[in-house]
Amino acid sequence: YMALMTNLIRAPRGSLTTALRVLMFGAAAAAIASQARQITSSQLLGSLAQYTSVSIAACVALTVASFAILGSTEIFALRQIESTATRSVSALRGAITGFVAGAFGQSVGFSLLTGAAVRLRSYRENGMPSAEIASVSAFVTVTASLGLIATGALSLLLGVDTLVVSGRVIHLRL
What we know:
This protein is mainly alpha-helical. It has seven helices and two strands. It has a two-stranded antiparallel ribbon. The longest helix is centred in the N-terminal third of the chain and has 35 residues, at 2-36. The radius of gyration is 21 Å and the shape is globular.
């Protein structure tokens, strides 16, 4: 009886999950199509031609470095928690989880929630309790926040008058 009930409960959940994925994909496709209608191919190519190969290579290198740092921060957070469950998480899994959590957080928004959801799904498979997963999320969030604060302070000290954070331009003139 329990097996039958479990299957009945899981079936709609699977269908609901699939429907939600299709809905999210459709919404993303509609948003991209809407944005694509606002620019012509000649405008796009003209804008891209303004960038040199050196600046494009630098952007790619800095992006790779940024995500490597996200993965490293995740591994560091796992090692700081230092429990049997966190020791069972490989460095590769931690780095990949940090990368995916960071990518989702920056793409979807609400990085604290989306990152925590990615970590929960990934680390539960290793048997980590929810409290430890929350500790990892908190550690990564505090570390990123301290980095932003330090970057902002350095910008103020160096006289930078504009700062770009998560795609938003912040004018620092007093």
